[in-house]
Amino acid sequence: MKELILNGKHNRSKILIGRNLMKQAAEHFRKLFEGGRTPSAVCVITDSNVAKLYLQQVEEELLRLDLPVFHYIIPAGEESKNLNTISQIYDTLSNRQFGRNDMIVALGGGVTGDIAGFAAATYLRGVRHLVQIPTTLLAQVDSSVGGKTGVDLPQGKNLVGAFRQPDMVLIDPAVLESLPEDVFISGMAEVIKYGCIWDEDILKIAEQMDCGGGQNRTNELGALIERCVDIKIKVVEEDETEEGLRRILNFGHTVAHGVEKLGNYTELSHGEAVAIGMAAAVKMGENAGITPRGSYERLTAVLQRYGLSISLTYPVEAVYEALLTDKKKQGNSIHFVFIEAFGKTQVRKIPVGELKQMMKALGD
């Protein structure tokens, strides 16, 4: 088992990575409560897919601690990531007389983690305990760590949110063996992102990794997860609230959020959209002389190796109009992430008119 620590401004996140950690959850929860911090109730928030696989197991671990446990199950999918779902969770917590010293456990992928984290950050102005148990590759390498939570509005993605570092993240690579192949592929986009923005060796591993399923692939992913999480810790500790360095984690996300919005958040998974967005950013960077020639060819080759699309699925003009609601937009400019070389980024604050001109390269 690997233990990493993220020191946030308001609390300390313990991140544990190891096979079969979910089966040892009670032991780690008990350590979290040392010093008289035991909650009087626990709410597990999960989705309709994950509940069938792991909810009973996690609840049994919590019951070993003699804690009252209840759950809230959201319909699986990005379309549940909205204020109506949050309102229903608030009702459930209130009806159960859930208190500020109690604990929320997020069990699932990125959507569940965002929703549960936002509920923990806002209910009663913040509950004391939050644990993330990510069950998808995307959530394990990225969204469960770093404290960004949020929900979507009809106008755009993640437009309502808060920063709330979890007290603990339990990352169990063994659960990835139960992943549908399309969910694994979506997560690989975020793995490849880290190879682009920080550590080229991650990209090299992705270019050679066993694309088959089973435990062999999961063992390789365990090492990749550690590398990605370690990078995210370094970035977040320097810039927790995304005012500088943390913006590099948005590589590919500006175009991705536009594409997701046009697809009503249902036609493409987040990882699939990020793959399209990364390919677009590199193509734009090459065209502008920021990114070295040949980078687009290399990136698209590794993305396609995992079955990820690299082409815009909507007209460039429509994507441009959709991304103007992105939360990275400030006034008439937007922070856009380019790569100068694999492992090195450049964040530019670009006037939206200039961005529109740069995006014309995507129509070629």
Features of the shown structure:
364 residues; alpha/beta; three-stranded antiparallel beta sheet; globular
What does the model show?
Helix 3 crosses helix 4 (110-122). The longest helix has 24 residues, at 215-238. Strands 1-2-9-6-5-3-4 form a seven-stranded mixed beta sheet, sandwiched between helices. The protein has a three-stranded antiparallel beta sheet with strand order 10-11-12. A two-stranded antiparallel sheet has the order 7-8. Helices cover 45% and strands 20% of the residues. The chain has 13 helices and twelve strands. The model has no long low-confidence stretch (mean pLDDT 93). The chain is α/β, with parallel strands linked by helices.
Any chance you could write out the topology, listing elements then pairs?
Elements (H helix, E strand, L loop, with lengths): L1 E6 L4 E6 L7 H8 L9 E6 H16 L5 E6 L8 H13 L7 E6 L1 H13 L6 E6 L2 H7 L4 E6 L2 E8 L4 E4 L9 H17 L2 H9 L6 H24 L14 H10 L7 H19 L6 H11 L10 H8 L5 E2 L2 E9 L2 E8 H7 L6
Parallel strand pairs: 2-9, 3-4, 3-5, 5-6, 6-9
Antiparallel strand pairs: 1-2, 7-8, 10-11, 11-12
